[in-house]
Write a structure and sequence with these properties.
59% of the residues lie in helices and 10% in strands. With 187 residues, it is an alpha+beta fold. The protein has a four-stranded antiparallel sheet with strand order 1-2-3-4.
């Protein structure tokens, strides 16, 4: 085989899996930089107990799936390239799915125990795309209990009371009308 052909094939075997990783980063996290940030710097932003153990467990399961199934698939012309892309997909999606479902269940249980009068909840997957941001108008979940507004924190894994300067930007205005609360800037 000519060296040029070998270089082209080895380049494709590297580029396509890397493009797969970038594509998955955009789909799952909202960007490649956010994927790296969640993996390297923002691991402490999820306060769910034992989530890291669950992530390691899901990586072990990912490895077993790749080793026992994906690597044993028959190779076609670009079979190795496809195997790498499938393997990367499994290693990205499975841990996020395990941890995401776990965090989602914990949030729903905690909010049910909180017993709010009104509530809205966004999916964990949507939160990966929208938070954390320094200046945000996005809530993982919002609630009103006894006409006091609350928001959900994944870091604290609980509800916290919203400040008056923020609550009108992030909660449905209907809730304030029902409670007779007027924005501070209209009083």
């Amino acid at each position: 085989m000519e060296p040029r052909v070998l270089l082209k094939r080895s380049g494709i075997k590297t580029v396509v899996p890397f493009l797969t990783l970038i594509f998955l980063s955009i789909i799952v996290f909202g960007g490649f930089g956010r994927f790296l940030a969640f993996g390297l710097f923002w691991g402490n932003r999820l306060g769910a107990p034992y989530w890291f153990v669950l992530a390691i467990f899901s990586l072990v399961i990912s490895y077993l799936i790749v080793y026992l199934i994906v690597l044993r698939l028959p190779k076609a012309e670009y079979g190795e390239c496809a195997q790498r892309s499938i393997s990367i997909s499994i290693f990205v999606i499975l841990p996020v799915a395990f941890v995401g479902i776990y965090a989602e269940v914990l949030r729903r249980q905690a909010i049910a125990e909180f017993e709010p009068d009104r509530v809205f909840q966004n999916l964990f997957w949507v939160s990966l795309h929208n938070a954390p941001r320094d200046w945000q108008f996005y809530l993982h979940a919002g609630a009103m209990k006894d006409c006091v507004p609350y928001a959900w924190s994944y870091r604290a894994m609980g509800m916290y009371e919203l400040k008056e300067s923020v609550m009108f930007n992030v909660l449905p205005s209907k809730w304030f009308d029902e409670c007779g609360i007027k924005p501070y800037y209209l009083e």
